[in-house]
Design a protein that fits this description.
This protein has helices at about 20-30, 70-85, 100-115, 130-140, 160-170, 190-205, 240-245, 250-270, 290-295, 300; strands at about 5-15, 45-50, 55-60, 90-95, 115-120, 150, 215-220, 225-235, 270-280. By secondary structure, the protein is an alpha/beta fold.
Amino acid sequence: MRTDYKSGFATLIGRPNVGKSTLMNQLIGQKIAITSHKPQTTRNRIQTVYTCEEGQIVFVDTPGIHKAKNKLGEYMVNVAERTLKEVDVILWLVEPTTYIGAGEQHIAGQLQKARNSVILVVNKVDTVKKEELFQAIDTYRKIYDFDEIVPVSALTGDNTKVLIEQIFKYLPYGPQFYDEDTVTDQPVRQIVAELIREKALRCLDEEIPHGIAVSIDKMKERKDGKVVDIDATIICERDSHKGIIIGKQGAMLKKIGSAARFEIEKMMEMKANLQLWVKVKKDWRDSDYLIKNFGYDKKDIE
């Protein structure tokens, strides 16, 4: 067995919508985590795996740390904060700004408790001048003693190789956890549900998305291995939302379905026969049973 092989866990944290999932997808080289411009897109921990000659990094993408408003929100914050204690390296993703709000101050406080190696990752560097970037770095340096500071663009991939090198610097020597070709430990059903939810988030109005979940009712490959049949239900909280999700003569549901089908076929490398339904389950985000039913773990809610 190789003695110079490094392996360990890294987590991406940051306020909702700072680009964590986009960066994860960029580092891994394929789409695992869903992205949208709306907050609370990522609800579960998503483990993705980066393997190279030097070693293996298991990335744990967490929900954004924010002030919880309901049981689902509490669940998401619990998952994110517990993850900090379980990893070797924490990547704190921020935007290149000199304004440090209450959300960032809260994260800095959580990091003081965690005592792991922390790398500040300043994202969206393609959107500011160098001078503004330096000012932002200087501002963050004053609130926490970072092990490294790496500016990147999750969108273009700029400087992400340097980020990988810096992560390896702080990982212990150890065995390979996953095979070389593993990119995620998520079940395919869960990824499919998340892809459908992503397309719904992108197509729908601002008010609705937080209140939707997706359950996969049936997913079965045909014997010829060329087509997968998927029945899925989009769950929303109100009757009025149901009408908006379906749209005039089913137009919105068709739009969500065809966008999701395209991504599912690309991921599974086969044709997908996707059937979508919409159901109303009032206040599911405050129900332990329903949150668990949609794939979230009860012990993380408490």
